[in-house]
Amino acid sequence: MPIKILNSNDLFQFDALAEKFGSVFNHSNWLSIYDNSIQIFGVFDNDDRLIAGFHLYKKKIFSLTHITNPPYTPNIGLFYENKAKNKASALSYDKKILSEIADFLNALSADIITIAFPHNILDSQPFFWQKFKVVPNYTYQIDLRQTLEELSGNLSSDKRNSLNKSLKDNIVTVITKDYKVVEELVMKTFSRKNKGLNAELVKKILFQFANDTNSFAVVSMENQTPLSAAFCIYDKNTCYYLLGGYNSDNKHQAAGVASLWQAVIHAKELGLKCFDFEGSMLQEVERFFRGFGGDLVSYYTVNKARLPFEMGLKLIKRESF
């Protein structure tokens, strides 16, 4: 099962396979926002047919080469079809694919590797055997096939109180196509928290990638003043909460809850099956997402660094190395 970088002639076949077995993060129109920083790989069978795909993002940290997930993309997007007829054969096929990828990653000329896999990839043993550190991570997902009453019933009491307060205070929550408002709220939030934001990529996501078939945004307003926003992207099954922000100059404690809850409702109205909050590893973020009543879902990251870099990383990123 050779693994090769895909060229432009392979992308049609890649997109067709990703449409069946991947997610919105696999599509070439999403991956194109990263220009030359991303490489798309294919796994081929002995007849040179594409059977699996994934992508890697390369960046420099000082003089070190770091292989990771692309920014705003939750994982490396590994997808493939397992056609095995019985359980043992299916497990063996999974192991073969993942062993090839583990060997491939281990042979890369990289100083640091930190990548995540989709939550449906459960077999991390091949990476453990190649001396990667395998770390569980978590997100929350809501099953949108529930009735609206069931979804509402799963909310925590403080989330229900926030939604009631937003109604009482005449907070208006609407679907918007004005992505400039979303951009402004996201920029304000990251600036206020002194956290890194790739402003160029945010612009590409909002104004190059987003359209009526793959994205939507929700804004909560008071007297026509935007207070908070939630921006989501989606594929045929799943909606992903990608970007959010709020206006600290006109802060309302219920506006953020109202925006995100309306995003969940709109995703259900689109006929999607799942709403994914896209990661919940920060304690305060986990607490906020937990109140929406989703299911806790695990996924795996695999990490490795060259010595002595790994020794240094153990001091500052002990949870990962």
Note down, in words, how this protein is organized.
- By secondary structure, the protein is α+β, with helices and mostly antiparallel strands.
- It has 2 domains: 3-137 and 300-316, Aminopeptidase; 145-272, 3-Layer(aba) Sandwich (Aminopeptidase), CATH 3.40.630.
- The chain is 36% helix and 28% strand.
- The protein contains 11 helices and 13 strands.
- Strands 1, 2, 3, 4, 5, 6, 7, 8, 9, 10, 11, 12 and 13 form a 13-stranded mixed β-sheet that branches.
- Helix 6 packs across helix 9.
- The mean pLDDT is 90.
Secondary-structure blueprint:
Elements: E1 3-5, H1 11-21, H2 28-31, E2 38-44, E3 50-61, E4 64-68, E5 79-80, H3 87-106, E6 112-116, H4 125-129, E7 133-143, H5 148-153, H6 157-168, E8 172-176, H7 179-192, H8 199-209, E9 215-222, E10 225-234, E11 238-246, H9 255-269, E12 274-276, H10 283-290, E13 295-305, H11 309-316
Parallel strand pairs: 4-6, 11-12
Antiparallel strand pairs: 1-2, 2-3, 3-4, 3-5, 6-13, 7-12, 7-13, 8-9, 9-10, 10-11
